[in-house]
Amino acid sequence: MLEVSLKRRKRIRNMLLITIGIFFSLIIRIGWIQLIQGEELQAKAYTQQTMDRSINPKRGTIYDNTGKTVLAVSATVETVSINPTNIAKEDKEKLAKALANIFELDYETVLKKVEKRSSIETIAKRVDKDKTNELRKWLNENNITNGVNIDEDTKRYYPYNNLASHVIGFCGSDNQGLDGIEAIYDDTLKGEKGKIAKIADGKGGGLLNEGEEYIPAVDGKDIVLSINMSAQAIVEKYLKEACIDNACTDGGNIIVMNPKTGDILAMATYPDYNLNEPYEPNTEELKNIWDTLSSSDKNTALQKIWRNKAIADSYEPGSTFKLVTASAALEEGITTTDKAGEFNCTGGIEVAGVRIKCWRYYRPHGAESLRQALMNSCNPVFIGLGQKIGKEKYYNYLEKFGLLDYTHIKLTGEAKGIFLPEAKVGPVELATISFGQRFEVTPLQMVRMASAIANGGILMEPRIVKQIIDSNTGEVENIEPREQSRAISEETAKQVLSMMESVVAEGTGKNAQVKGYRIGGKTGTSEDGVNTGKYVTSFIGVAPISNPQVVILITLYNPTGEGGHQGGGVAAPIASQVLSELLPALEIMQDNTEQIETRQEVTVPEVRGLTIEGATKLIEENGLDFNLNTDTEKNKAEKIKDQMPKPGLSVYNGTKIELYI
Hints:
Elements: H1 2-36, H2 38-49, E1 53-55, E2 62-63, E3 70-82, H3 92-102, H4 107-114, E4 121-127, H5 129-141, E5 148-157, H6 165-168, H7 180-184, H8 186-190, E6 194-198, E7 212-215, E8 222-225, H9 229-245, E9 252-257, E10 264-270, H10 284-289, H11 295-306, H12 309-312, H13 322-331, E11 343-345, E12 348-351, E13 354-357, E14 366-368, H14 370-376, H15 379-389, H16 391-400, H17 427-434, H18 443-454, E15 458-460, E16 465-469, E17 476-478, E18 483-486, H19 490-506, E19 520-527, E20 535-543, E21 550-557, H20 567-585, H21 593-597, E22 601-603, H22 612-621, E23 625-628, E24 642-644, E25 650-652, E26 656-660
Parallel strand pairs: 2-8, 23-26
Antiparallel strand pairs: 1-6, 2-3, 3-4, 3-5, 6-7, 8-16, 9-10, 9-21, 11-14, 12-13, 15-18, 16-17, 19-20, 20-21, 22-25, 24-26
Helix pairs in contact: 3-4, 9-20, 13-15, 13-19, 14-19, 15-17
């Protein structure tokens, strides 16, 4: 009996220990679930017990600077989703077939979603209402009332397709901004998502006695750009014509800026692309090879298509940069604008044992004032001025004009100038910088520099967004113009503007004249890299000189057409075309009616193939002038091989025709 009693007590003790162990294990497990996994399990329970459907907000509208013209808008569309567990088994196959047919989807893929044991599956995003109305009709005809959701959604549209494509940018399939303004201001434009929440049973089906909780979406804010739709359309029209007519292999860009506010009125890059089809090839050449490209090559091509060369690519500005040298020299009191014979061009200048030629070395300019040197775009004069300024002061002016830093425009992918560090700049490097070569800047940096001159010496930050408007409350946030620095004095700025006017009135920029307006400007031609055989031609202009309201930069990359690659012959005429239409469109008053009325337009005659004697006679008979890189008296019988501008172009009387033998 004693032995049995001991065994019983031992079993009771073991059972008690096991029970205590199980009890403590349960306590530990409960503690782990409650304290460690509590939040995670609570979230999973909520997901299982509810059927949430997102409501996408309406993305904010993008307007031009009038606040009236819509450049980007979100239209109402609908998204279709299903609750698979709420769909009757006998309806699954025919519903999958109907969804696949209506929305042009793969049947097998849709069927897998319909047969899933999940609470919700998305079938089609952002489809037009004609498609969803077709689905509604089919559901009604087949008496299917549960398991299919049709929710209001939004889709991004760009009413003008290619207009300002590199500025506006585009959105992805999820309505997220991927480039341009759409990307930079994505948080402002996108708004906040809402949702429809419904309590579900254990199988994921809805509980009939429980209603839906509706949390509305908050629409995004609207944005008013500085871009003027009319100005942008004019600029894009002439840029496209210029790139095609001059066979610009690497495209081009035009920027128009208000110097007083920094507003970018127009910014165009060619080739552009359709914002409604951003993943499609944008040129015939690319379309022909698109299907043969790998995914990687297609991505590389798309990145190039979307690249805004006006802010993301740098180039050698050439003679347009002489405006910086002239400004610095005048500001430092090294020279004046009109001292006769102050400089003498002999066709070149020697710097540290290196002879640097003037572009017209074959017929030197001779005695010149600073104004005449700028009109003639004479390299030796500006090299000499750079030497007198010195590299330390010169780099100080580069900084004042914002050429060593970003402009801080609110757009994606901005680059900045590429200059040698000041410590590495020797006499030859300073010489080449002084007339605009062997360094790089972006087109936007050049426009900002010239705008400082046009704005009395004050450098403005480029502004691309003027206002942000809360469409829900009507609250308006104004983005005020921002001064960045004083580059030069107001007096120096006036002197440089006066010389720029002379460049257009009588110098290399004659072809940029505009009837009724006083125009100032500077032409530029530079190499696109060292020994590439490519060139960049450009013209930078200010209008009207009496009250500057527009600064324009035209940059064409590697023009290979018959017109050549000189800024005065290629870019300046384009500036005349653009400004002749742009200034009236912006309602900018004429300031030179009497003077310009007296100038006559002349059609450039065809002189190629004629002898020098015959060509020069014909040119003079048409009221034009000429430049010839040879002695006319000794070579009268030689024939003209080429000319610039080309025959048929309308120019003002007195314009010089460059002749080549």
